[in-house]
Design a protein that fits this description.
Blueprint lengths: L1 E6 L4 E9 L16 H5 L4 E6 L9 E8 L3 E9 L10 E2 L1 H16 L8 E4 L5 H8 L2 E4 L2 E4 L1 H12 L5
Helix pairs in contact: 2-4
Length: 164
């Protein structure tokens, strides 16, 4: 899927892609990432990456998703590359594009009452960010979800997709 990221140095939008990821795309904690993606890749799941150039192999961000009970899409892990962390990161919109992409998949993969719902666990310090920036709702503890209305808003904002 074609997307655009914001280059925080030039303030320009640059073209990027969200693609299926494979083992060789997975970075290690030693590379500065918070998660050991190579270990995570050994577990069952669907992995996607954001890349500036689909041939470079260097991910700007990664997600891992699974389907629970054959009807609910769960965002298990999301991380932006270390050089994209926080307000001083090089590329903005990486996380937003990945969350919007996962929300879009939730309409395709979700079944029954879970169509369009994206469920995830948040780090405690990120709960308010997910609520304010991405429209997520807290279920209890660290469990959160993005409902179809919030998902559609994210898809329009970050992916240019309008889904009825």
């Amino acid at each position: 899927m074609d997307i655009q990221l914001k280059d925080t140095v030039t303030n320009e939008l640059i073209n990027a892609k969200i693609l299926l990821a494979n083992f060789k795309d997975m970075p290690l904690k030693d590379d500065g990432w918070n998660f050991n993606w190579r270990e995570l890749f050994k577990e069952e799941g669907i992995f996607y990456k954001v890349v500036l150039n689909e041939y470079s192999g260097k991910p700007e961000g990664l997600i891992k998703m699974t389907v629970e009970n054959k009807d609910m899409l769960v965002l298990n892990y999301i991380e932006v590359a270390p050089h994209n962390y926080g307000s001083s990161g090089r590329y903005d919109y990486v996380a937003g594009c990945l969350i919007a992409f996962a929300s879009n998949l939730s309409f395709e993969i979700g079944r029954g009452h879970f169509i369009g719902f994206l469920v995830f666990n948040s780090k405690t310090k990120l709960i308010s960010l997910y609520e304010s920036k991405y429209g997520a709702t807290r279920i209890g503890g660290q469990r959160m979800y993005i409902d179809p209305k919030a998902g559609r808003k994210l898809m329009k904002q970050y992916l240019g997709i309008i889904k009825e």
